[in-house]
Amino acid sequence: MTDPAELLRAEAAALDAADPLAASVDAFAEAPGIRAYLDGNSLGRPLRALPDRMAAFVRDDWGTRLIRSWDEQWMELPMRLGDRIADVALGAAPGQTVVADSTSVVLYKLMRAAVAARPGRDEIVLQSGDFPTDRFVAEGVAAETGVTLRWIEPDAVAGVTVADVAAVVCDRTALVALSHVDYRSGALADVPAITAAVHEAGALALWDLCHSVGVVPVRLDAWGVDLAVGCTYKYLNGGPGSPAFGYVRTGVQPEIRQPIQGWWSAADIFAMGPAYAPATGIRQLLSGTPPVLSMLGMQGMLDLIAAAGIDAVRAKSVSLTDFAVRAYDAVLAPLGVRLLSPREAARRGGHVTIGHPSFREVTARLWERGVVPDFRFPDGIRLGLSPLSTTHAETLAGVLAVRDELG
Amino acid sequence: MTDPAELLRAEAAALDAADPLAASVDAFAEAPGIRAYLDGNSLGRPLRALPDRMAAFVRDDWGTRLIRSWDEQWMELPMRLGDRIADVALGAAPGQTVVADSTSVVLYKLMRAAVAARPGRDEIVLQSGDFPTDRFVAEGVAAETGVTLRWIEPDAVAGVTVADVAAVVCDRTALVALSHVDYRSGALADVPAITAAVHEAGALALWDLCHSVGVVPVRLDAWGVDLAVGCTYKYLNGGPGSPAFGYVRTGVQPEIRQPIQGWWSAADIFAMGPAYAPATGIRQLLSGTPPVLSMLGMQGMLDLIAAAGIDAVRAKSVSLTDFAVRAYDAVLAPLGVRLLSPREAARRGGHVTIGHPSFREVTARLWERGVVPDFRFPDGIRLGLSPLSTTHAETLAGVLAVRDELG
Q: Which of A54, A265, A271 sits opposite B58 (nearest CB)?
């Protein structure tokens, strides 16, 4: 009987040979000692061109143009980069997206603004398994505004469904805040259908796109989403802690007033007048000076995604995750490893999660061997397969390394 | 009669020759085309070593260690870097300072926390000429918490005095929020005396150190300051939009609870449990993932300040601003330019402000000539003299260039 690993190696080689985006792997910086990087869903890799670009930025844009660069380019950067993300990855027209703060801070601003925009309504709907910061920030907003959190308890693998949401939204609902891709299972929510159910109840829909932006096509304008937030250091490869983006649909911008009214959200930043007047438009979502150096890394990645096209990126993502599931079936399921993600590609984002009681220790040993997935409490390993930087062979190397550690 | 410029040139040369910190100027990156950079109070220059350091960071810490760097170094970076700033420039013991967010967001957190920590008190005291973001954020906090803003109207050049503060604080005062160095005039507030007056009234004292940290010695612990916020891209040379720092005195930490309770402020970040529990200690001031790339620039500058010693930095700063005032007296006062900063060095921070109705246009022409101060509405030019990167000769070149534009 043939070793299943041999068949999988042959399949990986064939898939990589046929991959129309195979060349993009060379666009990323070499990572000496790394045999398989499977955590692109947590921290995307830097582009090969970035070290020189950063060095040139420090010497020229900062070091030589100095303060003049604010007038020449940086004042508009949060809006310009927001529009670029909107165009490449969000399906959103210009003027609705800014890059600012962290995901947690933007979530706070949008949740506060949404509650204020629906006076007389006193509930925020969330799901109990959502990413901690979404839940924790909402807890704080609820405590200070007096609204109640209403929790959906979805199936841990399948994620939130439109039926889950329709069963709880009502005329008390101010806001429904959910994630497009579940950070644990990778389950993909049906954003347009859920958003329609939210609107049916007269509430606002806030989508957390942290685990979908750059890997799953998003159509914010077509889907009628009101508010969104997302992360730029995962599939947009912005580097550790690169700032978040926030989206407010043009039609709801007049209703939205966020609470942290720093000078960058003022109608005229340099008027420095006696009283605050908010900017019109999406700039009102800003607060303080944006971290420009942390906004450089994502720019080359956005160019790369734009050149490939987000639908081609998704096709590669599906190919990688489908292959990971087949490899799991062949070599990990027999060892008692559980599949914690949906089997059907159409219901899954860019990562596949597997579970085993030994995975905390296994992850530590894998990291030492240059195989880098991430561990999620209590016993999950997430295989985060960033399509432009990951091959099927690398995916298989990761799965086989897990097998070796269990064997 | 000797040209006053000749005498000033001789004086500048003598002062530079005798400057014990003269060698530090070479630690900064060259700036081709710049004849005088006088805006270190707005955006400090990068160190010469930084482009290579940034490039190495992208290749190694991010690109090769990848997600492992979170465990190895970045999780503790906001606290470690906060403690470093505290040690080098704030006169504060460890465990009270973090690097996070923007100044505006940290101001919001601290103002909200202070109001909540003084229940039954319903006023925040501010001064009418403070930096816009301080005033605007306070306006927002007042509107949402129901407190009233009580405005001090200080002399525009002399700045806020202890008498100004003592006259308004009372048993209704929850918080007094002021700047150590006035962003317009450069006036230096008497922090220990004002803080004592604030405490006498039972209120909390929040100091904005944006225009003093790294150039004026600060002794937060000795002065009994409760809360502080500051900027790292001015005299700490962190680069455009590098994150702010926040300080909460150990003794008041148990009273302080900030509203943006993201996962980084949770007791156990990776427990990802069902409900939020705040961290104890200063980490509770965090919210989301910090912008690591924007936290690199300041590290070399902190080393440089530590090597020089903050008192020596202040001595050089006083020498530069005193010389700027003498040069003003000799060549600009006769042309009708007004001095908008205190004359006495002991009452002045690191910049000198001068005024003339033509300064908006003059500044634009100076920038084209490679002389870069900044303009402040309505008609001020600020000469921001960052001590470690600026010579007396460069200061004089700036003053003479202003004279030439007016002549």
A: A54
